[in-house]
UniProtKB/TrEMBL annotation:
Gene3D superfamilies from the UniProt entry: Acetylglutamate kinase-like (3.40.1160.10), VC0802-like (3.30.2130.10)
Keyword line: Amino-acid biosynthesis, ATP-binding, Diaminopimelate biosynthesis, Kinase, Lysine biosynthesis, Nucleotide-binding, Transferase
Catalyzed reactions per annotation: L-aspartate + ATP = 4-phospho-L-aspartate + ADP
Domain ACT: 269-345, 351-424
Record-linked Pfam families: AA_kinase, ACT_9
Family: Belongs to the aspartokinase family.
Lineage, highest ranks first: Bacteria, Bacillati, Actinomycetota, Actinomycetes, Kitasatosporales
Organism: Actinacidiphila acidipaludis
PANTHER family (alphabetical): ASPARTATE KINASE, ASPARTOKINASE
Protein's UniProt keywords contain Transferase: yes
Name used for this protein in its record: Aspartokinase
Keyword Transferase found: yes
EC numbers on record: 2.7.2.4
Top-level enzyme category: transferase
Function: Catalyzes the phosphorylation of the beta-carboxyl group of aspartic acid with ATP to yield 4-phospho-L-aspartate, which is involved in the branched biosynthetic pathway leading to the biosynthesis of amino acids lysine, threonine, isoleucine and methionine.
């Protein structure tokens, strides 16, 4: 008997029929002789609807109460799913994140998991029950307040529980059949991968791929938990994410390129007229860090010899844009820059592949594809296995399609199927 952790996204449990379909799949896994722990997201667009409602009541909701509100969505899903399983003749118990032992820090709306103590989950499993856990949430270690892990946090909940329970696999069920070489909503000929290494998946996830959350993959790699990304709408095999391919069947040569990802959720801030002297950049990014804002790409222009001033541009989540502008404005007297520019009409395109570091033609092909598509580049960032560029948001779709085709990633078979929802 093996222990399996399954996670179902909001599109999989969007309505009563979806919940009943998921319940049947869970019961089938139980009948196959496995112990089953299920992590579930809120139904459909419930979280977005709760956020909209909160903003109508209070433009800037208090963090603690905001978390209390948002966790209601997952509690609804877990209770309904447990009811559906019981109607099929099997015992199920539902648990909130705190009841499941998910311990976090005290940062509301984007808490990080500190520890998982799944004593009640183990007891439920030992009694022959199926355990249903509300994803995306936990309890703070110090104040014992309800916290949320940020958007997509149910993925992280599932992997954290899999690690704590020493599960054989963590199955992430979504509305596509696995991990594709690009978003199948943008590239209809995107090809499903049977296996992808943690390293490549981390880069894709951090560059905008929606199928898995970056923190989830990072957690899985740290504890060596294999992830199986599958669709809850079909019985097809999905994509394995792990250190080694299943059965150790590693190909002689890893593919040069794993995929192309894109992200339209970022904004760009340019700090204009920064004195070109030691310490100025440090002061800028300390102000951003003190506001608890994560940044992505950073570019500093060459200093103008006549003025001794330079511009520094960086990208960050749109949701943090106004907070960053406010933090920098307060620091202007210290930094003595001229002005700030804010631009939220940008998009990022990333090419990912562990094989690119030993293939010198990759960079040239990438930029030639963008040039042929008439795409202008604003920022460039690279690592050993990734090249990212920032463009206008309207250029993202043609850019992704052009790069995908240029590297021969288009599938010759049927178009990728998107069963519904947003891919999470």
């Amino acid at each position: 008997m093996g222990l399996v952790v399954q996670k179902y996204g909001g599109s999989s449990v969007a309505d009563a029929e979806g919940i009943k379909r998921v319940a049947r799949r869970i019961v089938d896994t139980k009948k196959a002789g496995h112990q089953v722990v299920v992590v579930v997201s809120a139904m459909g667009d419930t979280t977005d609807e709760l956020i909209d409602l909160a903003e109508q009541v209070a433009p800037i909701p208090a963090g603690r109460e905001f978390d209390m509100l948002l966790t209601a969505g997952e509690r609804i899903s877990m209770a309904l799913l447990a009811m559906a399983i019981k109607s099929l003749g099997h015992e199920a118990q539902s648990f909130t994140g705190s009841q499941a032992g998910v311990i976090t820090d005290s940062v509301h709306n984007k808490a990080r998991i500190i520890d998982v103590t799944p004593g009640r989950i183990r007891t439920a499993l030992d009694e022959g029950n199926i355990a249903i856990v509300a994803g995306f949430q936990g309890v703070s270690q110090d104040k014992k307040d309800i916290t949320t892990l940020g958007r997509g946090g149910s993925d992280t909940t599932a992997v954290a529980l899999a690690a704590a329970l020493d599960a054989g696999v963590c199955e992430i069920y979504t509305d596509v059949d696995g991990v594709f070489t690009a978003d199948p909503r943008v590239v209809k000929k995107a090809r499903k991968m049977d296996w992808i290494a943690f390293e490549d998946m981390l880069e894709l996830a951090s560059s905008g791929s929606k199928v898995l959350l970056h923190r989830c993959v990072e957690y899985a790699r740290r504890y060596n938990i294999p992830i199986h990304v599958r669709s809850s709408f079909s019985g097809l095999p999905g994509t394995w994410v792990s250190n080694e391919p299943p059965q150790g069947e590693r190909p002689m040569e890893q593919a040069i390129i794993s995929g192309v990802s894109h992200d339209t959720s970022e904004a760009k801030i340019t700090v204009v007229g920064v004195p070109d002297k030691p310490g100025e950049a440090a002061t800028i990014f300390r102000a951003i860090a003190d506001a608890e804002i994560n940044i992505d790409m950073v570019v500093q222009n060459v200093s103008a010899a006549a003025t001794g001033l330079t511009d520094i541009s960086f990208t960050l989540p749109k949701a943090e844009g106004h907070k960053a502008m406010e933090a920098l404005s307060k620091a202007q007297t210290v930094i003595a820059f001229d002005s700030l520019r804010y631009d939220d009409q940008i998009g990022k395109i990333s090419l990912v592949g562990a094989g690119m570091k030993t293939n010198p033609g990759v960079t040239a092909t990438f930029f030639e594809a963008l040039s042929n598509a008439g795409v202008n580049i604003e920022l460039i960032s690279t690592s050993e296995i990734r090249i990212s560029v920032v463009t206008r948001v309207d250029d993202v779709k043609p850019a992704v399609q052009a790069v995908h085709s240029a590297f021969g990633l288009d599938s010759d078979s049927d178009e990728a199927v998107v069963y519904g929802g947003t891919g999470r």
